[in-house]
Amino acid sequence: MKKNRVRTELNKLEILKHCYRMMALGTWDAISVADLEAGMSKTRGAIFYFNKNKAELFINMIDELFLPIFKLNELDKKRYSQCGVELFFSVYKIPFERVADDLRINYKVPNPCQTMFNIIVQAQKLYPGFGEIIKAEVNREITFLNGILNPRSEKRFDVAQFYRRTVGYMFLESI
After folding, report:
1. CA dist 92 to 77, 87, 118, 124, 145, Å?
2. From CA 109, how far away is CA 96, in angstroms rounded?
3. Out of 15, 32, 102, 170, which residue is the most buried by the measure of CB atoms under 10 Å away?
4. Do the Cβ atoms of 139 and 44 come closer than 8 Å?
5. In 3D, which of 24, 26, 27 has the Cα closest to residue 112?
6. CA of residue 18 relative to chain centroid, distance
């Protein structure tokens, strides 16, 4: 029984990853269910076994593939809390960079910054409350970073300014 559950979860993940890459490189509204099936060893029935409809599939992709990369996990928080300021800046990536790296490494997209912004634009339209989730996560991360960086440095570090500069650079790179 346990083996079947593992296989079921792997099937679900395979479907999500396939559909996520298609959505990331295109426009979700323009992708048909037949398009989703193409190039995948799963059928329409398998896709909808895990998702009620195409809208739910989109939300599941964001919840299971985008947001876990975007959000700073507890292990990384602990790791960043223990390193010095110089080391921190050599390893830390803002949430948008983490998503772009994930797209480049795991989904082999040609322009990960552009692809990441494409996902965000689509999610703003198709995922109720997405903007508030992103804003809350960014604010949570900025608060965390202020808490670990400012007590350690001589001068006050403006984490929000750092975010604006980095996201701006990524946007220019995406054009």
Report:
1. 10, 8, 23, 26, 10
2. 15
3. 15
4. no
5. 24
6. 15
